[in-house]
Predict the 3D structure of the following.
Amino acid sequence: MTDEKQRLQLLLNASEEEFQRLILDIHDQPVQKLFAALAQLTLLHSRLSDLLPEQPEILATLQRASELLESALSDIRNLLSTFRTPEFTHRKLDQIIEDLIVQFETLTGLKVNLVQKEVPEGIALPVKIAVYRIVQEALSNVYRHAGVNEAWVSLYQQGNHLRLEIRDQGHGFAPATEEEGHPQQGKHLGLEGMRERVALLNGRLWIESQTGKGTSVSVEIPLHE
Ligand SMILES: Nc1ncnc2c1ncn2[C@@H]1O[C@H](COP(=O)(O)OP(=O)(O)O)[C@@H](O)[C@H]1O
Ligand SMILES: [Mg+2]
């Protein structure tokens, strides 16, 4: 397996929460500190070249340290870009979803039957991101839990709503009802994460699943709030 493929596999197996936390943590903490250190070194270099013009080896050492930091930053950027989500702002949602599905099929060998109808242009960014993440998580669940090699995804406009469905004919499971609360909370964050995303957008999500009869995740998100 190539490095790239291994990383993608990792991505697919990580829960949404783990994945988000990882990217944010790397970006917010070590990367910012490395940038700050690089800036300090550059400052030091320019001060010392005034103060110690006779000491080129000190300046050269500082220069090497700066280059190492720059190279580390570029390594991290490359790594993060493997996990980076597609360019949501300028791309249309149907293209984004199509690419995600091709990537998923290549990686897993599963067949995904995709139907997209009249997916409007100019969908709000948070809606695009939510749809992308939900499809990603639901397909990753099919791959990990359903025990089948085929799935169905449909995305279309219905009145003022965007409708999304991810379906499989696999093992199925018994989804927790609202009354039961979320006994799995803390352990299985995928479905919870989907619910939260949809709730934030004033949408609805419902899961139909029966042992032995497959699973469907349906989502309805208002297009104009
Ligand atoms: N498509 C599916 N087919 C069968 N079981 C599923 C499916 N989706 C979810 N499940 C079941 O629901 C549980 C919770 O899913 P999720 O919240 O995504 O957590 P995780 O994938 O990390 O286990 C899974 O562990 C699995 O038992
Ligand atoms: Mg999951």
